[in-house]
Known about the structure:
Layout: H1 4-19, E1 22-31, E2 41-47, E3 70-75, E4 78-83, E5 85-86, H2 88-98, E6 105-109, H3 117-124, E7 132-136, H4 141-147, E8 153-157, H5 185-199, E9 204-210, H6 220-229, E10 235-239, H7 251-263, E11 268-270, H8 274-277
Parallel strand pairs: 1-3, 2-6, 6-7, 7-8, 8-9, 9-10, 10-11
Antiparallel strand pairs: 1-2, 1-5, 3-4
Amino acid sequence: MVFPVEETRKEADSVERESREAPIIEVFASIQGEGLYVGQPQVFLRLAGCPLRCTWCDTPGSWAVREGASARIMTPEGPLRRDAWATPLEALTHIGQAEPREPRTVSITGGEPLMWPEFLLAFATMVGERPLHLETAGAHPETLARVADVFDHISLDLKLPADLGAPEELSGSENFTRESAPNSASDWREARRSCLKLIAQRDACAKIVVAKGRQVHDYAALLEDLAHLAPEVPLFLQPVTPMGGVEGPDHAFLGDLVEDARDLGLDVRVLPQVHRSMGIA
Ligand code: SF4
């Protein structure tokens, strides 16, 4: 016989479990191709869902949370398909299947992982000794403030307003953050500054994707905010990987941008996406 109190507890457990689920696109072991930990073998957990519309986005398939989608788990024996919606424990199981041997640093990417704060917080309690890294677009400072302490490293994008289309908020789930994406240049400035304050004095890096067709002075506000709010955080200028008609900047342009960053005392480095140049995921 099942007592009412038992039924209530099971129902509460089920609600709690569901509230921590997030949609996974893929889990795979590879080499980190960007930022401060470039070259490090890591395992990547890519979450679906992103309200932003970067003009040079290399993962537009991650924007939507699709009904009936499945997650691809790249194991050493070959790919597996699993239900996209996963609890933190299920995600950790996928990671164990994707790791070829010893546990690796886990990098959570997207999409925009900050869409799923409850998942992130619960997942962080389960990863054990593995370092946990976050790759974020820096559009949701309130959510970042909630989760920042559970990460060992944060890679923060600094977005140029000219590189952004109008955001499209997610729908169809109760689990994503209620914080809206910035929708104007001034909203973006505020979000950027708040995020920079949050990564200051942490193990972190900032990344600016640089595409062709911009002026060096377009980046002045991004560089100045970094220099003012988190001057010790390394800055990676990432020439966009050419695709879909988007082209990268020329060398002289990058050189000028580097000098502007150096004039502000920034620790600036230029780094294309290494995994793309190697032809790996
Ligand atoms: S934040 Fe990332 S996933 Fe979202 S549009 Fe920009 S590049 Fe694409």
